């Protein structure tokens, strides 16, 4: 993980970030939106079919599927591999938890090994048969600036791994959490149905109220003082984003979910490490909520959701939903 973009500092970070180009800019998102809308419609068709027979698990049928299909189509990964990548990603993030158990670390190590094997092979294949896809584009950039082909391939592997890890867990949580919170607050849901132009504000409140990442680790590059506490060089600081989002000194009634709040949040980070995929995650949430509001009135939560016991990365395992 130390070679992935969030863990790098300038000048290495600058070089790697520049090699990505303008990923998820306005044009790229416009090109992707139609596909995301079609995928959303197809997933909701299946979800609606399941609702006809009783409770349907929104996580399994929709929120876990949309992000992996979206990023998989963008990277031109075979659809048959989506389930494997989703499963490996679930296990890999244990290494980024606050106090992972030995068994969780072993699970994370094994999933990381398999992800490395998969994406190393993918990068090698794209070098042999380059195409019109991001991985091939990154290879062209790195091959032009790095004479060592092995080092160039390693850089592109780290980029590809990071894109998948960053896109799946976090976006799936935002989608499932948005639906959960709106179903738990039917008055706000009904208001949003009348004012769909406010969906972006609703998504921001979801990101504040229940951020996909509740903890970010940072290492001090030199001795410093933080809020009156001495932090020595190379010591690690855990930034508790989830707690910051509920700080009464910064938010009025922070425990209230209010889609008209229009408050800022830290869910996408900041500075040079501001989330590259923030606009893509927003678009997926916007497409999903827009379609849900139009197609499926009268939904309610059929049973309490189940959660993965994590601190850093939030993950809802099941969200049973019923109709009527």
UniProtKB/TrEMBL annotation:
- Which is an annotated Pfam family here? p450
Presence of the UniProt keyword Iron-sulfur in the record: no
Q: Name one GO molecular function term.
A: heme binding
- Membrane spanning stretches: none
Origin: domain of life: Bacteria
Q: Coiled coil where? A: none
- List the InterPro entries hit by this protein, alphabetically: Cyt_P450, Cyt_P450_B, Cyt_P450_CS, Cyt_P450_sf
Keyword list, A-Z: Heme, Iron, Metal-binding, Monooxygenase, Oxidoreductase
User: Which family is this protein grouped under?
Assistant: Belongs to the cytochrome P450 family.
- What is the protein name stated in its UniProt record? Putative cytochrome P450
Species of origin reads: Streptomyces lydicamycinicus
């Amino acid at each position: 993980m130390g070679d992935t973009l969030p863990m790098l500092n300038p000048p290495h970070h600058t070089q790697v970030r520049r090699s990505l180009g303008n990923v998820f800019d306005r044009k790229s998102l416009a090109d992707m939106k139609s596909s995301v809308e079609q995928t959303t419609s197809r997933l909701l068709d299946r979800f609606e079919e399941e609702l006809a027979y009783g409770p349907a698990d929104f996580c399994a049928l929709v929120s876990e599927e949309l992000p992996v299909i979206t990023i998989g189509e963008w990277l031109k990964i075979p659809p048959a591999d989506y389930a494997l990548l989703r499963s490996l990603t679930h296990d890999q993030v244990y290494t980024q938890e606050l106090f992972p158990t030995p068994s969780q670390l072993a699970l994370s190590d094994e999933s990381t090994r398999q992800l490395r094997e998969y994406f190393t092979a993918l990068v090698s294949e794209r070098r042999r048969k380059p195409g019109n896809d991001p991985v091939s584009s990154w290879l062209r950039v790195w091959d032009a600036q790095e004479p060592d082909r092995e080092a160039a391939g390693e850089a592109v592997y780290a980029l590809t791994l990071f894109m998948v890890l960053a896109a799946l867990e976090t976006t799936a949580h935002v989608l499932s959490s948005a639906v959960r919170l709106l179903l738990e607050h039917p008055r706000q849901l009904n208001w949003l149905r009348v004012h769909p132009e406010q969906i972006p504000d609703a998504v921001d409140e979801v990101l504040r109220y229940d951020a996909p990442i509740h903890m970010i680790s940072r290492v001090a590059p030199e001795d410093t003082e933080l809020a009156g506490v001495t932090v020595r060089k190379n010591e690690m600081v855990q930034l508790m984003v989830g707690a910051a989002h509920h700080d009464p000194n910064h938010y009025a009634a922070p425990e209230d979910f209010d889609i008209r709040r229009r408050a800022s949040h830290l869910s996408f980070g900041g500075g040079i490490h501001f989330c590259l995929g923030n606009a893509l995650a927003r678009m997926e949430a916007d497409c999903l909520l827009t379609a849900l509001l139009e197609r499926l009135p009268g939904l309610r939560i059929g049973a309490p959701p189940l959660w993965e016991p994590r601190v850093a990365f939030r993950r809802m395992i099941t969200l049973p939903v019923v109709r009527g």
